[in-house]
Design brief:
Elements (H helix, E strand, L loop, with lengths): L1 E12 L2 E13 L4 E5 L6 H9 L6 E9 L2 E2 L5 H7 L4 E4 L3 H4 L6 H12 L5 H14 L16 H13 L5 E5 L7 H18 L2 E5 L3 H7 L2 E6 L2 E7 H6 L4 H8 L39 H5 L4 E4 L2 E4 L10 E3 L7
Parallel strand pairs: 3-8, 3-9, 6-7, 7-8
Antiparallel strand pairs: 1-2, 1-4, 4-5, 9-10, 10-12, 11-12, 11-13
Helix pairs in contact: 4-5, 5-6, 6-7
This protein binds adenosine-5'-triphosphate.
Adenosine-5'-triphosphate (ATP) binds next to strand 1, strand 2 and helix 1.
Length: 329
């Protein structure tokens, strides 16, 4: 189980402090998949990197991250190297730049396996790699090839196999299908869904694509400008969205039905995270904004099973103010 409590990631830059992730809390239970969605620049990748502790040097991390009861935030780099790949892994969006082109696939597997288990022989590491390659639909005989000899979709499969060779219990997948065409995208999503069940993994799925999370996630977190503005079950997010930003995001999904030819979009643009607006960060673009929204940052409220960071719900009935996020149902 992953528990993120009051996580903040601030970057130091020439323009000042960039509050990329600002007081975000949630949890992902064993076997569960949380989809994290939001526009480009809202802090999704930063959050994934914070959990892996692979943030750039100009980043500062505050708050707490617990993985299976271990406090990751307190671990040093040596301890992190032990759990990365073995307990928790991250599959990146661009296999072309993340995979070393001058290494054969088998050597990539040997490197990963032996970094964690130096006593495992090269032959055994290659066997382990071959078995996962088969699981991702690649003939193990391709072990002797270089990654540039694979198509985009196949490279993504190799990335997934490398990430899973040590059978981690938690996988972070950052835009796993962005660079692929739609047919290959669908195949990769199906593959990830199959592997997640077979390997019994929990997953944090980072994407701007609401279609991808619809297929894979159990619950969905919506991020806006460094804040987690809503988190709930997939069904609640799609059929009973509460936050005005979640509603706007759903309205802006392209619809193939010819009757709905007007694509809605969210007017304005997200704020500069170096100078976020006072109050709610979405208020300048929100059609429901009230005076308080421009003055005070909203608290998180629990309403109909959804945790929503929005003043609209302050006076709702069955409502409870949540101090630390992550619905605990
Ligand atoms: N190394 C860095 N130094 C300073 N600012 C950074 C750095 N990396 C990211 N940022 C800023 O932090 C904010 C969040 O970026 P992040 O990449 O996490 O967002 P994202 O939602 O994953 O976007 P995308 O989908 O485009 O990758 C952005 O304003 C970005 O410009």
């Amino acid at each position: 189980m992953l528990e993120v409590k009051n996580l903040k990631v601030y970057y130091k830059s020439e323009e000042g402090i960039i509050k990329a992730v600002d007081d975000v809390s949630f949890n992902v239970k064993d076997g569960e998949t949380l989809g994290l969605v939001g526009e480009s620049g809202c802090g999704k990748s930063t959050l994934g990197q914070a959990i892996m502790k692979i943030l750039p040097l100009n980043a500062r991390l505050y708050g707490e991250i617990q993985l299976n009861g271990q406090n990751i935030t307190k671990m040093n780099e040596k301890q992190m190297r032990e759990i990365r790949g073995r307990d928790i892994t991250m599959i990146f969006q661009d296999p072309m730049t993340s995979l070393n082109p001058i290494m054969k696939v088998k050597d990539l597997f040997v490197e990963i396996v032996r970094a964690h288990f130096p006593d495992i022989s090269e032959q055994k590491a290659i066997e382990m790699g071959g078995s996962v390659l088969k699981d991702v639909g690649i003939d193990p005989s391709r072990m002797n090839q270089y990654t540039f000899q694979f198509s985009g979709g196949m490279r993504q499969r190799v990335m997934i196999a490398l990430g899973l060779v040590l059978k981690p219990s938690f996988v972070i997948s950052d835009e796993p299908t962005t660079s692929l065409d739609v047919i290959v995208q669908a195949q990769i999503i199906e593959l990830m869904s199959k592997l997640r069940d077979e390997y019994q993994m929990s997953m944090l799925l980072i994407t701007h694509d609401l279609g991808v999370v619809a297929q894979l996630a159990d619950k969905i977190g919506v991020m806006y400008a460094g804040h987690l503005v809503e988190i709930s079950s997939k069904e609640n997010i799609y059929y009973n969205p509460k936050h005005p930003y979640t509603k706007a995001l759903l309205d802006s999904i392209p619809n193939t039905d010819i009757k709905y030819k007007d694509l809605k979009y969210i007017p304005g643009s997200p704020p500069d995270l170096g100078k976020p607006p006072k109050g709610c960060r979405f208020a300048p673009r929100c059609e429901y904004a009230m005076d308080i929204c421009h003055e005070q940052e909203p608290k998180s409220f629990l309403i109909e099973g959804s945790e929503v960071k929005c003043w609209l719900y302050e006076n709702s009935q069955d409502l409870k103010h949540v101090n630390v996020g992550g619905t605990n149902d």
